[in-house]
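Worked Example 4.2. Consider the chain below.
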Amino acid sequence: MSTTESSVGIVSAQQALFDVPLDLACGKTLTSYQLIFETYGELNAAKSNAILICHALSGHHHAAGRYQPDDKSAGWWDSMIGPGKPIDTRRFFVVALNNLGGCHGSTGPSSINPATRQPWGSAFPVVTVPDWVTAQARLADRLGIDRWAAIIGGSLGGMQALQWSIDYPDRVANAIVIASAPKLSAQNIAFNDVARQAILTDPDFHGGDFYQQDAIPRRGLRLARMLGHITYLSDDGMGEKFGRMLRSGEYKFGYDVEFEIESYLRYQGDKFSDYFDANTYLLMTKALDYFDPAKDHGGDLVAALKKATANFLVASFTSDWRFSPLRSRELVQGLIAADKRVAYGEIESAHGHDAFLMTDQPYVDLMRAYLDRVAKEVAA
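Applying the procedure from the previous section yields the following structure tokens:
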């Protein structure tokens, strides 16, 4: 961190309660719900400097700062959000939220269903990216924000930024889509299904109603996270960090942890199963699978993008094989064909898909340069 950069400091979560029914793409309706969110910086008098941060699969509203001074770690995108950082809170009012179906305070499967006074569990409806965008638009209304200076997201978050530009074109000035894609490949859908099967077949899952059984499908969550984590890393990155290092220096000729990469993955799986909800994991991966804005246009991505009026920044990372640069270039080509203004950056990185969370200097420089221009637009 340079001397001109600092943290947003101590932050606190806020909640917004909505009692206007939300009709979902699956055909069901949430009669009421709440969204948990955080804000950083100050909204200007014209309410024109707001930026929305959309989270990825396992993300949440705590994107920057700390809740207590002695917290071991800051928000998940603290490296990017704060005074002097690319998403500069001296210039922007930043909003980060936990989406519907989440497990960090927004209404989701572990929340109490008002109709039964029990956790929603398996009864919680499947939600989609367009559903999230509709809920986010209502939060924007609540905050008095008619138009976002920018909407930013990586991976599943980038899909939300893209959906915003299509569903609410007049409310988005800039859409920043990072390490994302206009729809999932068959391989990505396959990875998601294997992860879901690990959860669905865990004896402690109880059909999604494990809360009443005082159980947690840890084994399924653990395996799902281990599989997912492999796809977020690159082969070169894993090789450089772990190689074929053995924990004890010699083969044990058994099936316990021997290689350092095995130890790392099991640690990540165990940690994840301690704080993430299994039903939320299922919902988030399904939202990924279903995302396809071209579907309503006969598969024509260009036709879907015609509605957008925002400027776009699309960024990808060379070692990301889960959402490869090819998929970002596919989106860029669609935007160009739809006659949209788009900038594209392909960043050299060894961090794989997780690179959108990292601080590779070319990536930071790209974000800073683009958002400097957004800040000038706001100030004009």
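The chain has two domains: 14-183+294-378, 189-285. The chain has a mean pLDDT of 96. Compare this with Example 4.1 before moving on.
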